[in-house]
Amino acid sequence: MKNLASxxxxxxxSSILAVFILAACSQKLVQQxxxxxxxxxxxxxxxAIAPYQDMAILVNAKSxxxxxxxxxxxxxxxxxxxxxxPAVASAGKTVDVGFAxxxxxxxxxxxxxxxxxxxxxxxxxxxxxxxxxxITFNPKVAEIxxxxxxxxxLIRKFFSYRIGVQKNSCCHMLLYLLAHNVGINFATLPxxxxxxxxxxxxxxxxxxxxxxxxxxxxxxxxxxxxxxVVTMDNAGLVDIAGFICKESIYKxxxxxxxxxxxxxxDCASYVLCDLNHHSAASLAYLKANSSTKYxxxxxxxxxxxxxxxxxxxxxxxxxxxxxxxxxxxRISKLCGEYLIDTGATKxxxxxxxxxxxxxxxxx
Length: 363
What we know:
This protein is of the alpha/beta class. The chain is 45% helix and 15% strand. The protein has helices spanning 2-33, 37-40, 66-69, 84-88, 102-112, 152-158, 170-181, 196-204, 215-223, 247-252, 254-273, 275-278, 280-289, 296-303, 312-320, 328-341, and strands spanning 45-49, 74-78, 97-101, 120-129, 133-136, 163-165, 192-193, 210-213, 227-231, 239-246, 306-307.
């Protein structure tokens, strides 16, 4: 009986020791992996991107190890450009973060943000789009160069053609500036409201004489013997695409969103420093998802029409600063005037409040 009691005590002591060892190991494992979303169970940051050459840069984040570097896991959702703002408006039901052009944001969010106290925020500039414009397949439509911007006869002739563009877009604003420069009442012009892709197809089959075009449509037009009529660069206009999210999402996931912005800059730096050797992931993504199957040379041409900050400091210097080459303050003011003059809004819209990203050890 004495030996049995001793054995029982030994079993109990061994069990207690095993529990202590297991607890210690578990605590050490948690300490080692704290903050790692794959282990702690933190949900990935869901990011909406459109299958365009610029946003395709972000697909490099995983292969570059940036999720581990910045302790944030990303889940990318591909969707049409025009669907991103509504998806972000779902406040995390669809995606957490997306991209939007400044012109789209300033126009559309007035209505979207009027329904409650959780507004969509334009938080940080991602890239500057300089390549928007109008394409044509009609040989009679004359090209409008920078020197022609104030040519009254040429601009009036251009507006005599059938022109398609999506209202309240950066290309719509380009038409407004052309008309405004030569004293034409923009509200009287019979502009056809259409999406980029539908406008392109209508121009290609002759239903429209000219249509708004992003880089994708410009690339396709040139492939099929079309021409570029006028570009944003010709008029000194740019559109600044940036990261957007609901205020509630930003407050909840501030650390992850700042990590995303840093990843974006790192991806841009990696791709743009050597397009010949660092474009494979972006090209593969575009091949699988984009209507335009870019070659390397076509990708180079498209990206040349845009400016990408390759660091937080570069974004602050070139876009966020009022003295920057692509000052978001200046472009926001221009957008506000356009929205008022075209009747898209009745009140002056202020520009977005850009967040300050904590650089820490980043730069």
